[in-house]
């Protein structure tokens, strides 16, 4: 390839990616080709990067000290940072990395975590909180969005003007500025996402240097960035999906026999990617939780979410301080885990007939009762023929022991039998039998199964979930939120659940009657639980609670609204001076990005259809760039956006920000296609008669200067419009004073933007 052609390729945003390469070339030839393709940033590019980085810090740090009050979700994430600094256990639906980063910043600033971030509007200065330093962390990472966007476009082989175009869209986006100026998580999420994309692009460019040190560095860096992305929020899995699809396509191409790879070589490629992009991210993700558990070792507000065993592993927890071993012949109370009622009985009996006409056993009622009462007392006795006589009569009760439960007040044993329960004919009735009646002894035997217990695990009050499984019929003692009729005093029904492995069968021994928690006890060491058990328990809770966040919110919005900026979020208001911070993107940028993605889809569809008819509307190098680069960014946008349609939880505009940055990358590739590639690579149409001859080099030389000038002019116009719209909406972004009701109303471009302090109808 001539030097002129190489120059032309670089100027138009291409390297020699279409030069035919065989993977089985010797190393010297590969290295020669790699050096011809290598497009290192020159001094001008580095200078532009420095200017863009400086501007991004200016826009992100401007007014960062205002307001001096807690804003929006700072109430959550600032509070969590304080908990870390006090080593107090808390529960959150998001992974721990970003919150630990805030805590680390607080530690460096000398902050001790004394402030609780209880309410929006609480004053930072009065409470001596280094809030500017805490906000500086996300602001710094937010400023680096711009740098990373520019570098991603440069490393993807695009010209400087295209990279500036992409970076400017990120630089002047009001939503990205607003979100990254506060103590919130999205700054870390998007930063690590962009680090992942940049690292993977650098790795992909080294396919002619496979298994070199540099190749391994960028592969592992990609994996580490993936792990950090997931460590901020679970939606980091969308980044994993993006890279995963790209890797699968890469492996599919390597499998092509024309690439000249042997299966042994292919397996080496597969193993390397598995290590770098599966093992490494998982290890990084798990390590963040290891640090989480290591730091949060003291009882706190998150205890109630966790299992008794988990709570017992925390310093100062009630489960550790007030749990007692349970022994045979102890009298206890049993509380149902899910509904918090006590196992209860009394002298009253089931009626002869129920409302549906069924006949009952007329046995003594066994119910669930929510209050402390003497009728909740049960003595635990060893079951005959199942008790090892070598054990002391007051031995501790262990996992899988067989017991009888004697109701103290009525002097009867708990029993269940093959009789339908009052409210659920599919389940068994629970009743009792007199202690001196052994005729149905086997029906009074139950086995104690401690959750996650082993043979020598001792049953303790407050610190073990247990299931009581009936020996004769194998049903589990169970209750649920359903009241008995008047004859049952509106107490909760208790019955036998045939599905005895359900977690709703869990009960807790609440106390041993006669033991006083204030009596001297030996100091207890926190319980030791394997890391993976703690991790999986927390992971399950995070997923279940995250999906349960369905409570309506005044500023929630659906995914269909986000790309079009239909609705924002009110972050903060100051009624005295009529100021507000309203999360709203740069409308020009957002709508331009949507239009660009529509153009990309249209161009690709037209190209596919045309090629089916034997036409070549797009030059091959340009087409390859669209399919390889633009489609990668489009795929990233789709993976970070479309899955939200499948979520049932409450959603907000800020959930779209990772997809927004991806859409800006798409917009820049479309700009490159429309205003640079389309002229620098003249259209070639196959199937037309040979009488149509074009002197391509001459046309190229005539138009190239004009096109470069035109592309720069168009990019400059778009950037200045973006800058102007950013300035226009900046008072809502920074919360600065000076807007009267008429000014606010002028910024309400859509009726759905529910800004505060707008003039009432007819005032203007």
Automatic annotation (TrEMBL):
Record's subcellular location: Endoplasmic reticulum membrane
Pathway recorded for this protein: Protein modification; protein glycosylation
Catalytic activity, as annotated: a di-trans,poly-cis-dolichyl beta-D-mannosyl phosphate + L-seryl-[protein] = 3-O-(alpha-D-mannosyl)-L-seryl-[protein] + a di-trans,poly-cis-dolichyl phosphate + H(+); a di-trans,poly-cis-dolichyl beta-D-mannosyl phosphate + L-threonyl-[protein] = 3-O-(alpha-D-mannosyl)-L-threonyl-[protein] + a di-trans,poly-cis-dolichyl phosphate + H(+)
Enzyme class: transferase
GO molecular function: dolichyl-phosphate-mannose-protein mannosyltransferase activity
SUPFAM superfamilies in the cross-refs: MIR domain
Region annotation Disordered: where it falls in the sequence: 1-27
EC number: 2.4.1.109
TM stretches of this protein: 43-62, 93-111, 132-152, 158-176, 183-201, 216-249, 270-291, 588-606, 626-644, 656-680, 701-729
Gene Ontology CC terms: endoplasmic reticulum membrane
Annotated Polar residues bias: 1-14
InterPro entries xref list: ArnT-like_N, MIR_dom_sf, MIR_motif, PMT-like, PMT_4TMC
This protein's UniProt keywords: Endoplasmic reticulum, Glycosyltransferase, Membrane, Repeat, Transferase, Transmembrane, Transmembrane helix
CDD domains: beta-trefoil_MIR_PMT4-like
Membrane association type: Multi-pass membrane protein
Pfam families named among the record's database cross-references: MIR, PMT, PMT_4TMC
Functional note: Transfers mannose from Dol-P-mannose to Ser or Thr residues on proteins.
Recorded family membership: Belongs to the glycosyltransferase 39 family.
PANTHER family on file: DOLICHYL-PHOSPHATE-MANNOSE--PROTEIN MANNOSYLTRANSFERASE, PROTEIN O-MANNOSYL-TRANSFERASE 1
Protein name: Dolichyl-phosphate-mannose--protein mannosyltransferase
Species in which this protein is naturally found: Rhizophagus clarus
């Amino acid at each position: 390839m001539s030097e002129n052609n190489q120059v032309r390729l670089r100027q138009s945003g291409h390297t020699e990616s279409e030069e035919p390469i065989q993977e089985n070339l010797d190393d010297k030839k590969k290295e020669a080709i790699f050096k011809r393709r290598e497009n290192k940033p020159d001094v001008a590019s580095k200078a532009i990067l420095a200017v863009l980085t400086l501007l991004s810090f200016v826009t992100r740090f401007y007014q960062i000290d205002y307001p001096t009050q807690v804003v929006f979700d700072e109430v959550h994430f600032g509070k969590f940072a304080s908990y870390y600094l006090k080593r107090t256990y808390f529960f959150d639906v998001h992974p721990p990395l970003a919150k630990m980063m805030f805590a680390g910043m607080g530690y460096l600033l000398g902050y001790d975590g004394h402030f609780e971030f209880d309410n929006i509007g609480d004053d930072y200065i009065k409470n001596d909180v280094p809030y500017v330093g805490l906000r500086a962390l996300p602001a710094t990472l937010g400023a680096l969005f711009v740098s990373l966007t520019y570098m991603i476009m440069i490393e993807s082989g695009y010209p400087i003007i295209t990279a500036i175009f992409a970076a400017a869209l990120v630089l002047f986006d009001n939503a990205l500025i607003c979100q990254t100026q506060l103590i919130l998580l999205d700054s870390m999420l998007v930063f690590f996402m962009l680090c992942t994309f940049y690292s993977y692009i650098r790795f992909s460019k080294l396919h002619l240097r496979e298994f070199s040190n540099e190749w391994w560095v960028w592969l592992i860096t990609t994996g580490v960035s993936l792990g950090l992305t997931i460590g901020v929020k679970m939606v980091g899995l969308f980044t994993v999906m993006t890279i995963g699809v790209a890797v699968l396509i890469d492996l599919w191409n390597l499998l092509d026999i024309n690439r000249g790879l042997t299966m042994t070589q292919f397996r080496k490629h597969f193993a390397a990617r598995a290590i770098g992009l599966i093992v490494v991210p998982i290890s990084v993700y798990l390590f963040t939780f290891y640090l989480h558990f290591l730091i949060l070792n003291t009882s706190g507000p998150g205890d109630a979410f966790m299992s008794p065993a988990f709570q017992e592993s925390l310093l100062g927890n009630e489960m550790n301080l007030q749990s007692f071993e349970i022994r045979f012949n102890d009298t206890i109370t049993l509380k149902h885990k899910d509904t918090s009622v006590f196992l209860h009985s009394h002298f009253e009996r089931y009626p002869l007939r129920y409302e549906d006409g069924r006949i009952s056993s007329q046995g003594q009622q066994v119910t669930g009762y929510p209050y402390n009462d003497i009728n909740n007392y049960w003595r635990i006795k060893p079951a005959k023929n199942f008790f090892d006589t070598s054990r002391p009569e007051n031995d501790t009760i262990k996992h899988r022991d067989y017991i009888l439960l004697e109701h103290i007040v009525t002097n009867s044993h708990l029993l269940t039998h093959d009789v339908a329960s009052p409210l659920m004919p599919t389940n068994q009735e629970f009743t009792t039998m007199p202690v001196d009646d052994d005729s149905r002894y086997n029906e009074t035997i139950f086995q104690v199964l401690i959750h996650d217990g082993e043979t020598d695990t001792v049953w303790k009050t407050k610190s073990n979930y247990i299931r009581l499984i009936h020996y004769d019929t194998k049903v589990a003692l169970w209750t649920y939120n359903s009241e008995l009729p008047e004859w049952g005093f509106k107490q909760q029904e208790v019955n036998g659940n045939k599905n005895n492995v359900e977690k709703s069968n869990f009960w807790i021994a609440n106390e041993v009657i006669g033991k006083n928690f204030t009596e001297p006890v030996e100091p207890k060491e926190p319980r030791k639980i394997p890391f993976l058990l703690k991790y999986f328990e927390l992971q399950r809770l995070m997923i279940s609670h995250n999906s349960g966040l369905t409570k309506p919110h005044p500023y929630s919005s659906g995914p269909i609204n986000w790309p079009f900026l239909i609705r924002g979020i009110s972050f903060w208001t100051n009624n005295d001076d009529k100021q507000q911070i309203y999360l709203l993107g740069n409308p020009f940028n957002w709508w331009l990005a949507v239009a660009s993605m529509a153009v990309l889809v249209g161009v690709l569809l037209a190209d596919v259809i045309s090629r089916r008819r034997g036409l070549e509307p797009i030059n091959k190098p340009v087409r390859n760039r669209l399919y390889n680069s633009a489609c990668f960014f489009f795929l990233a946008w789709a993976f970070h956006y479309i899955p939200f349609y499948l979520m049932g939880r409450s959603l907000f505009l800020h959930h779209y920000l990772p997809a927004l940055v991806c859409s800006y990358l798409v917009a820049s590739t479309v700009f490159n296609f429309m205003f640079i590639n389309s002229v620098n690579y003249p259209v070639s149409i196959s199937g037309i008669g040979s009488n149509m001859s074009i002197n391509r080099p001459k046309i190229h030389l005539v138009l190239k200067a004009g096109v470069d000038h035109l592309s720069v002019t168009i990019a400059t116009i778009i950037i200045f419009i973006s800058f102007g719209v950013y300035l226009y909406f900046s008072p809502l972004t920074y919360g600065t004073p000076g807007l009267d009701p008429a000014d606010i109303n002028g910024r309400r471009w859509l009726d759905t933007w529910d800004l505060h302090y707008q003039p009432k109808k007819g005032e203007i």
